[in-house]
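Intended use. Records like the one below are meant for learning the mapping from a protein sequence to its folded structure. Do not use them to infer anything beyond what is encoded.
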Amino acid sequence: MRIKSKIEVITREDMQKVHDASLKLLKEKGVVFLGEATREIFKKNNFKMDGNIVYFDEEQVEKALKSCPHEFKLTARNEKRSVTVGGEGFVIHPPGGEVQIIDSENGRREATMGDFAKLQMLYQACENIDIAGYQPVTTSDVGNKSRGLHFLHQSFIHSDKPILAPMDLEDMKQKRECLELYEVAFGKKGFLEDHYVTWHCVCPNSPLMFTDFACDGIVEFAKWNQPVLLVSAPMSGITGPVKLFGTLVLHNAETLAGLVLGQLVRPGVPTLPSSSLVYGNLQYASWECAAPETSLMTAASIQMNREFYGLPARCQSGITSSKSVNYQAGIETMQGLLFTALTGAQVYSQAVGSMENLIVTSFEKTIIDDEAVGRVRALQAGMDTSDEALSVDSIMSVNHGMDFLTLGETIKHMRDYFTPTVSDWQTYYNWHADGDTEIVATAANKAKEIWADAPDTLLDPQTDKDMRDFIRIIESR
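Structure written out for the chain above:
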């Protein structure tokens, strides 16, 4: 029985106010689209325009919303690993956009393709991480021209879960090459026409502007029938109003504008709005992903997407500003994970391993966060409240003052419940006898075991060769 409690940061009346205010901005202020080809799409569909500013009326927005699916399947090479985006529960995917890597042995440093591969092995082994790939670090040992293709290849080598495209795609050509490599990986030209295998992260520049890069991303991926991920991320007081509610309005308007464009390119293509707005830390002129205010705005955006619009609700949550894997990291990560889960988040980004406000990815925190996500899932699942679970017969069968340890029911169900993967539940004396190992060291040891046991590749030789040949051709041009 799923847990009954649910957090509601804003009311239905509040959601209507946000929607109405967003429509006012779209109709009267408009949104800048710098992509010339994108403006032609709007022009062809008779949108009001003034130079590079596009204006939206309510009917155009509502038409686009009606054509967006409520959920979709993200396909993996191993069909058993495919996941549904939307519906009950949530799925977790890796961080994206972090620059460096950190671990307890070597500290913080520039990442290499080897570090990227190690992260993919962890994602494959961690049972609470549903999707692999993406771009948890930016590597320094491969050039920009083909780095995204190498990210994708390494992801398929080390994981048979759904694989997300990297963010490191600089132009339309690289986006197209990435999508072509997916078809090589799945072994069939035209496979993407009938299967959703990835999505593309599109970030408008707040307030109310889509760059050439953002425009091209929406158009290219929608043409290939691949979902469009809209990551509007205004910072309150910096690139958004200082009032949290106002930043929510700006974020919502930007999301709706991107959604309309995607539906104009390909009606029915899945659109995944992301609750990625953050609290602006005006003391340091930066953002603060771990602030309670960020969680409040994120939760309100989740409500808008899931409850008001009926769209899948992705969020950026479980993030810490801590520079090490410490108590602060635990507080801030669980604050975000649990609060947004209880609001109804269906897809999580940045929830495993991300530190220092999206700057660094940690091997050890990836392992620890996998357990944290498992705890949230266990809480969200609630408890069995069936007639059998009342256990009246069991209670009747045990003498007063005795225990239930040897009952057949106890033996049968003793492993049904949550068990930590890195937290220590032993007594102090047993923990001390085992070497007083702290959780970070336990996570580091577990990561080493995963790397030692991971197969060299999960790709068959022909597919691996085909992917390498494709990358070699691109690099030779």
